[in-house]
Specification:
The radius of gyration is 15 Å and the shape is globular. By secondary structure, the protein is an alpha+beta fold. 38% of the residues lie in helices and 29% in strands. It contains 4 helices and 4 strands.
């Protein structure tokens, strides 16, 4: 898939859980490829993998606090890093 995007880059790419079957070493390789190619292509990916989520510039999650009620939770990575550096607990913005 990455070979096709390197041959003919698209403006964006949506990936759904492509990292799920990968071990940690291959997840790292996947993340490096996404980082390298993100100069030409915007990647949107769905993942539950901690390593992949750590690479993201922006995180958006869906929670279900009560059955049948979904809530969108967005995390501003720069704000979270700043709060962590200051010793304050990270906050999520809706």
């Amino acid at each position: 898939m990455f070979a096709l995007f390197q041959l003919n880059p698209a403006p964006f790419c949506l990936l759904d859980e492509v990292d799920a079957p990968l071990d940690d070493a291959n997840t790292d390789r996947f993340c490096r490829m996404v980082r390298e190619m993100s100069g030409e292509t915007q990647f949107l990916f769905i993942s539950h993998n901690k390593i992949t989520m750590e690479m993201a510039n922006q995180l958006i999650g869906i929670t279900m606090p009560e059955p049948g009620i979904s809530r969108v939770v967005a995390v501003d990575i720069a704000e979270a890093v700043g709060l962590a550096a200051a010793g304050a607990p990270a906050m999520a913005a809706a």
